[in-house]
Design brief:
The chain has seven helices and two strands; from the N terminus they run ββααααααα. A hairpin with a 2-residue loop joins β1 and β2. By secondary structure, it is mainly α. The longest helix is centred in the N-terminal third of the chain and has 18 residues. A two-stranded antiparallel ribbon has the order 1-2.
């Protein structure tokens, strides 16, 4: 069992701690982001499970193919939206799409295109993630403004 304090893992074997930290860093380098799921897999399932998780992504959607990284990340955003995914999950893939060359406006346009077909609730989910990623200065969309 491993406990985490900040980014430091506490456990019985120092070599395993170092390897876990290195594998978390490798995953962050591969993807360009680190999500709480990655820490969870490391802490609960251990080093080998984290390696398998990272390799699965490396050999899956991150491998070089006919579709460029920007398009892959936009597709990930659409897929996560369509499932009603977590805002944090949408944010990391919006960040990755932006890093791969998509402008905030392009990402917003993708949300508008698919939002029409996915429905208002799903579109609001995507818009809230976009707001949190690119315009955190704006108030949250998912809030009660006034009741009369």
């Amino acid at each position: 069992m491993f406990l985490s304090v900040g980014n430091q893992f506490l456990g019985k074997e120092p070599n395993v701690q170092t390897e876990l930290e290195q594998e978390l860093e490798r995953g962050t380098e591969l993807r360009g982001f680190r999500h709480g799921l990655h820490d969870f897999v490391a802490q609960v399932d251990g080093l080998e499970a984290l390696r398998q998780h990272n390799e699965g992504r490396k050999n899956g959607y991150l491998k070089k193919s006919l579709i460029d990284r920007k398009t892959k990340e936009l597709l990930m955003v659409v897929a996560i939206m369509s499932q009603g995914g977590l805002i944090s999950h949408l944010q990391i893939h919006m960040h990755a799409a932006h890093k791969a060359g998509a402008s905030p406006e392009e990402i917003r346009e993708a949300l508008d295109i698919v939002g029409f077909n996915l429905g208002a609730t799903t579109k609001m989910l995507g818009l809230e993630a976009w707001r949190a990623t690119f315009r955190p200065d704006l108030p949250a969309i998912d809030r009660v403004v006034e009741l009369r």
